[in-house]
């Protein structure tokens, strides 16, 4: 099934100069970039994006992190794009993520884990609509 998914290349990746290397991995996988923009995210946008995590103990630190500098938001499209991106990203916790994945190769933190990918087609539809309301 052709799907679209929302990816965030988070502030840690932007600060470390990894945007190009991360994008190259998605492109080499033949995922198509449908939309892409560098953004500064405020607390309200962070709360909307992470609404399911608002009550978690880690959320205040997560909000500080995602609002700490520019990030790159993009929409990728391809066959089973939601799960394909999650495989490329690797496990959430960089310390345990598989070598060969983005987090496995470049992250060593559970919070500063370089990328976000929608975790289901339903979440992808919501997140694409939130970040890129103009997309048809
Ligand atoms: P992401 O895929 O964007 O979805 C939720 C984010 O919360 C996750 O990546 C991490 O950045 C962060 N996160 C998840 N679990 C924890 C945790 N236990 N401690 C700190 N940050 C976390």
Automatic annotation (TrEMBL):
It comes from the Bacteria. Keywords: ATP-binding, Cytoplasm, Kinase, Magnesium, Metal-binding, Nucleotide metabolism, Nucleotide-binding, Phosphoprotein, Transferase. It catalyses: a ribonucleoside 5'-diphosphate + ATP = a ribonucleoside 5'-triphosphate + ADP; a 2'-deoxyribonucleoside 5'-diphosphate + ATP = a 2'-deoxyribonucleoside 5'-triphosphate + ADP. SMART domains: NDK (SM00562). GO terms for biological process: CTP biosynthetic process; GTP biosynthetic process; UTP biosynthetic process. Residues 2-136 form the Nucleoside diphosphate kinase-like domain. Its EC number is 2.7.4.6. The keyword Transferase applies. GO terms for cellular component: cytoplasm. One of its GO terms (molecular function) is nucleoside diphosphate kinase activity. It holds the Pfam family NDK. Gene3D superfamilies: Nucleoside diphosphate kinase-like domain. The keyword Disulfide bond does not apply. Major role in the synthesis of nucleoside triphosphates other than ATP. The ATP gamma phosphate is transferred to the NDP beta phosphate via a ping-pong mechanism, using a phosphorylated active-site intermediate. PANTHER family: NUCLEOSIDE DIPHOSPHATE KINASE. Belongs to the NDK family. This is Nucleoside diphosphate kinase. It comes from Propioniferax innocua.
């Amino acid at each position: 099934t052709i799907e679209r998914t929302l990816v965030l290349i988070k502030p840690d990746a932007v600060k470390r100069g990894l945007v190009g290397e991360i994008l190259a991995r998605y492109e080499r996988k033949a995922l198509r970039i449908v939309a892409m923009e560098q953004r500064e995210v405020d607390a309200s946008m962070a709360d909307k994006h992470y609404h399911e995590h608002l009550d978690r103990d880690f959320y205040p630190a997560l909000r500080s992190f995602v609002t700490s500098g520019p990030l790159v938001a993009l929409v990728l499209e391809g066959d089973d794009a939601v799960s394909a991106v999650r495989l490329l990203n690797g496990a959430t916790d960089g310390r345990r993520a598989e070598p060969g994945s983005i987090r496995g190769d470049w992250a060593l933190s559970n919070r500063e884990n370089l990328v976000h990918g929608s975790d289901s087609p339903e979440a992808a539809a919501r997140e694409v609509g939130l970040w890129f309301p103009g997309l048809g």
